[in-house]
C-alpha cells in the first residue's frame, strides 16, 4: 500500500527545498552586498569628516599659535621697557604663590 506517486512527491519536495535554498542564498548574497555598500559609504563619509576636522584643527592651532606669539612678544616688549616693574611683579607673584602653597 505504498503510494505509487511517492517517489514523484519526494522529488517535488526535494526540488522545492532546493529552490528555497537557492532563493535564500541569493537573498543573503544581495543583503550582504547592500550591507557592504552601506559600510563603504559610511567609511567614506567618516573619512571625509575626519579630514575636515583635521583641517579645522590645524587652522585653529595655527591661529592660536600666532596669537600666542603676538601676545608673548607684547609682554616681552613691556618687560624690556620696564625691567624694574617686571621684576617687582615677578617678586610679588612669587610671594603670593609661596604664601598660598606653603
Biggest sheet layout? none
Mean pLDDT, nearest integer?
Answer: 88
Tell how many strands the DSSP assignment holds: 0
Helix content percent band: over 70%
Number of domains: 1
**How large is the radius of gyration?**
39 Å
Give the number of helices. 2
Distance between the termini: 107 Å
Structural class: mainly alpha
Strand content: under 5%
User: So what's the overall shape?
Assistant: rod-shaped
Low-confidence stretches: none
Instruction: Give helix and strand order, one letter per element, not per position.
Output: HH
Biased composition (Low complexity): 20-37
Biased composition (Basic and acidic residues): 1-12
Region (Disordered): 1-43
Protein name: ElaB/YqjD/DUF883 family membrane-anchored ribosome-binding protein
Question: Summarize this, please?
Answer:
This protein has 102 residues and is mainly α. It has helices at residues 6-81, 83-101.
Descriptive report:
The chain has 102 residues and is mostly helical. The protein has one domain (9-101). It is 93% helix and 0% strand. It contains two helices and no strands. It has helices spanning 6-81, 83-101. Helix 1 (6-81) packs across helix 2. The longest helix is centred in the middle third of the chain and has 76 residues, at 6-81. The radius of gyration is 39 Å and the shape is rod-shaped. The protein starts with 5 loop residues before the first helix and ends with a helix. 0% of the residues are buried. The model has no long low-confidence stretch (mean pLDDT 88). Residues 20-37 have a biased composition (Low complexity). Residues 1-12 have a biased composition (Basic and acidic residues). This is ElaB/YqjD/DUF883 family membrane-anchored ribosome-binding protein. It comes from Methylopila capsulata. Residues 1-43 are annotated as: Disordered.
Amino acid at each position: 500500500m505504498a503510494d505509487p506517486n511517492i517517489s514523484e512527491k519526494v522529488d517535488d519536495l526535494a526540488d522545492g527545498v532546493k529552490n528555497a535554498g537557492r532563493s535564500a542564498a541569493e537573498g543573503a548574497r544581495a543583503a550582504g552586498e547592500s550591507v557592504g555598500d552601506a559600510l563603504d559609504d559610511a567609511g567614506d563619509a567618516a573619512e571625509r569628516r575626519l579630514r575636515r576636522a583635521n583641517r579645522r584643527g590645524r587652522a585653529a592651532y595655527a591661529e592660536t599659535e600666532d596669537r600666542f606669539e603676538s601676545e608673548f612678544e607684547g609682554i616681552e616688549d613691556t618687560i624690556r621697557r620696564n625691567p624694574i616693574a617686571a621684576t617687582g611683579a615677578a617678586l610679588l607673584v612669587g610671594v603670593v604663590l609661596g604664601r598660598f602653597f606653603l
